[in-house]
Design goal:
By secondary structure, this protein is an alpha/beta fold. 34% of the residues lie in helices and 17% in strands. It has an eight-stranded parallel beta barrel with strand order 1-2-4-5-6-7-8-9, surrounded by five helices. It binds SN-glycerol-3-phosphate and magnesium ion (MG). One of its GO terms (molecular function) is phosphoric diester hydrolase activity.
Length: 246
């Protein structure tokens, strides 16, 4: 059973706001999205921050790598102006700030653990620990918790060790032929795949085995309906303006 929302705003607000910023979350909410996917990696001081690329330059003004800077330094960097002048002044938010916002607004989170090269274990463990600490009350009350996911097997294993009580999703491009064995070993609740690599047969097999099935990144209502008809449980989208949240 998939206890989570079906439609998630990718990187906060899809392509309608600067990705992985608090402005993106506000934008998602304005479109009625109360479920979101975003990416987390570690700053140089070990603090988890919300950003997609390990290198600066594309969305964050600056040079070098995310893990060359502390969370406070990243928070002061420009992460909104590339998208439009009205977003100037948005910094790289800490994971902590994003969780606080989402909790206050009752936004459900799929937290993608996105380690910079070589720091998979530390990133997986830190994200899981912070999440568990933030949701300690919900954990004991049996309420809906965030879902962690990652392409990094090492990060997933570290997250499992640090907070085994948090559900995890295994992110892949195409679902590999050994998915059943691997999913069991990793003890994941769901498989997250590129929708363009999914077939109805594979969707049926994954669902028949009892796993959640999540797709990224689905940008037309027609494709969304098709995937849901195949048994896909949920997906993230860049087009929060085209796809109504459910
Ligand atoms: O979590 C699904 C999706 O976000 C994976 O790709 O590169 O957008 O993080 P990416
Ligand atoms: Mg992502």
């Amino acid at each position: 059973m998939w206890p989570y929302p079906r439609t998630l705003a990718h990187r906060g607000g899809g392509t309608l706001a600067p990705e992985n910023t608090l402005a993106a979350l506000r934008c998602g909410l304005a479109y009625g999205y109360r479920a979101v996917e975003f990416d987390v990696m570690l700053a140089s001081d070990g603090v988890p921050v919300v950003v997609h690329d390990p290198e600066l330059g594309r969305t964050v003004a600056g040079s070098g790598h995310v893990n060359d800077y502390t969370a406070a330094q990243l928070g002061a960097m420009e992460a909104g102006a590339w998208f439009g002048p009205e977003f100037a002044g948005e910094g790289v938010p800490t994971f902590d700030a994003v969780v606080a916002y989402c909790k206050a607004q009752r936004i459900w989170m799929n937290v993608e653990i996105k380690p910079a090269p070589g720091v998979d274990v530390a990133t997986g463990a830190a994200v899981a620990r912070v999440t568990r600490d933030y949701f300690a009350k919900e954990l004991t009350a049996g309420e809906l918790l965030p879902l962690l996911s990652s392409f990094s097997i090492a990060a997933l294993e570290a997250a499992r060790q640090a907070a085994p009580e948090l559900a995890r999703g295994w992110l892949v491009e195409a679902i590999p032929s050994d998915w059943a064995q691997k999913s069991k070993e990793l003890d994941v609740a769901a498989i997250h795949c590129d929708h363009q690599q999914l077939t109805p047969e594979l969707a049926r097999e994954v669902k028949a085995a009892g796993y959640g099935l999540f797709c990224y990144t689905v940008n037309t209502p027609e494709r969304a309906s098709e995937l849901l008809a195949w048994g896909v449980d949920g997906f993230c989208t860049d087009r929060i303006d085209l796809i109504k949240p459910v």
